[in-house]
Amino acid sequence: MAAKGSLRSRTWWDDRHVLAFACAAVIPKASFAGDLEQALLGQKLTGTPFHRTILAEAKKHGLIVQDDHHLFHTSGDQRGVVLWLWASNGYDCLLFFLWPEGGRNRVQLLERGTTVEGPGTDCVRGDFFWRKDELRIAGIGSASGNWSWPELLAYRESDGRWQKTQAVLMGDEVAGDTRFARTKHGIDPDHVLSRVRVYPDALSACHGCPHRLYDDKYTFQRGQFTRTSRRRLPTPLATLEDLAALEVAGRRREFAKRVGPRFEGRLWEALARDRKLSWHFPQPKGKYSWDWGKRFELNGTWLVSLDGKAGAWHVVSVHPL
After folding, report:
1. What is the pLDDT of residue 84?
2. What is residue 63's predicted lDDT score, i.e. its pLDDT?
3. Which strand ranges, in their side-by-side order, compose the sheet holding 276-279?
């Protein structure tokens, strides 16, 4: 069952394979995978006939109710394919792994869940690595709307079936990106890079508010993903949270030294009254834009502005709204 070489339109590293996909899963009729295997007898795992067969079987089982190829997606080639099938209700989908073995095409459901259940449903999209009896996933899980979190999944093949051996859920309710590291030769599936959004501790933040940003690194060894490092990014929010932590600890002298005499009194008073954080527009444009914003509302009554550069942010304004 081992596959050699690189996947078309994908990077490769030795005989290791990466497939990009998105997934969640409904609980399908038990016969869907088996019926798809039978329907794929003698077919290649690529091309128009292959995709027509998938659509026909999905319609037969009520997973797709119309001829819409946008409701499923495949990644890979003849040596192995990930099938992502989005159900017609708009919330549920199926993730399958298809691979040739013993003169026939095998089909197995990998994950199941719904996009409305929240963390733990294994609704993941990202890098999918396959080598011999190993499957590894480094991607982003999502439930609905803008809820998402980095996630790592590992599988091991035994007696012709893939069994999940590890699931790592990173960050709080909202998170960032996770992917395999890249080298000049392609991907490196033994190392994972993850940017995680985490709720602040010293400030009370809503789901859509700015969050702390961390860059995490994971290593895959002895069959497990293990986090090897974590670095907090020097965002304006990180500076404001450090100041809030000083107020909580009652360290007024250190607080005054960091803020300066012009705004020390107002900011201390604002944080002492309420540390409920909300966003304030305009914010920078682009990815993680809210997390790099420099203007913050405290309980809707104070506006705090910072300026400077990464690692050297300073308070430039504190005034009531």
Report:
1. 79
2. 81
3. 204-205, 276-279, 295-298, 302-307, 314-320
